[in-house]
Every structure is written in C-alpha cells, then in structure tokens.
Amino acid sequence: MQSEARVPDTYPQPRVLISRDALQSRVTDLAQEIERDYRDADPIAIGVLKGSVFFMVDLMQQVDLPLAVDFFQTSSYSGTHRGEVRVVKDVDLPIRGKDVLLVEDIVDTGYTLRTILDLLRFRGAASVRLCALLDKSAAREVDVPIDYCGFEIENLFVVGYGLDYEERYRNLPYIGVLESEDEEE
Ligand code: IMP
Ligand code: MG
After folding, report:
1. Which ligand has the minimum distance to the alpha carbon of residue 82?
2. What is the reported pTM?
C-alpha cells in the first residue's frame, strides 16, 4: 500500500519557482481586487478543470460576494489539429446576462482561453473577464487579455497547485519546475 502511494523515482522532486507563501499572498491580493470590481455585479466564477481547481478553491473562499461557481473541462488536440480545443464538460448554469469571471491556472498558447471566451460571449454573457494564476506570455500564439494575473513566468513547464505532468504533482502546495525541464532550456 505504502509503496503504491509513493511517487516513483521517475518523478523527481521539482525545484520551487513560486513558494506556497508567495502564492497565498498573491491570491489574497487578487481576491480583494475581484471583490471590489464585482460588488455591483451578478457574478458567476467559472473554472477550467482540472488545473484551476486548487487556485479556484483558495481564491473563491476569499471573495466575499454571493457568486455562483461552475466548471468547464477542455481537451486540446495535437499534430495537425493543434489549436483546436474540444469542450469535454460544459457548464451547468445559464450564461446569458451574467458577469462571468473565468478562472484558469495558466495561459500558455492561449487557444484554450480564446475558445472559451468566444463561447461565453456567444452565449450572451453580460461581461467576461479572465483571472489567470500564471501567464507564460512567451508561448502565446493567440491574443488573450488577462484582467487579473497572478504571476508572469518564463517559458518553462511548471507543475503544482493544480498543474500536472502526466497527472502527477497537482497536489503540490507550490509551483515548481522539473529539473529535467530546466536542463532542456
Ligand atoms: P493553452 O496552450 O493556453 O491552451 O494552455 C492550455 C492548458 O495547457 C493549460 O490550461 C494547462 O492545463 C496546460 N499547460 C500549459 N502550460 C503548462 C505547464 O507549464 N504545466 C502544466 N500544464 C500546462
Ligand atoms: Mg488547464
């Protein structure tokens, strides 16, 4: 039982890029901004599964507003369909007339967010804003405006606080870089 639960040797310990304390303090700042901006709105916070979950839980608990919460799940194709994003799980709640705050872990190429933002506008959201914990702007291929940004990071593959490498590391309380990724840079 114990040996099954251990992270195998092929999954090394990541190097800390953004500490737990730094994350928590930035999340508090973002929550205050959001609370101030949405005071007179009818907000619905929508997270993108699975990566945004850890960030979303911490953030939303600090926003003292009666907001609704929902989730999308998306999946990206690779190869010749690169840039095409499939909605795997749609939101449950109606969007028309709502002030939507989209919450995402990271904006990389921008294809995922571009697709979701367009879909929310098509459904008649009154407003749509984006809150992203991480912005990897050097990797951007389509323009996506970020209204609330946690941290801008270099073009590195990061894990932790919701972000995974082959479904591992999501539960790390910090953002880390796998050393093998560092060496490839
Ligand atoms: P996009 O390229 O902006 O569409 O990014 C879509 C998704 O790729 C993000 O929501 C993440 O789930 C994943 N992703 C992008 N960069 C990283 C990373 O550095 N670590 C882990 N997941 C990532
Ligand atoms: Mg994601």
Report:
1. 1
2. 0.91
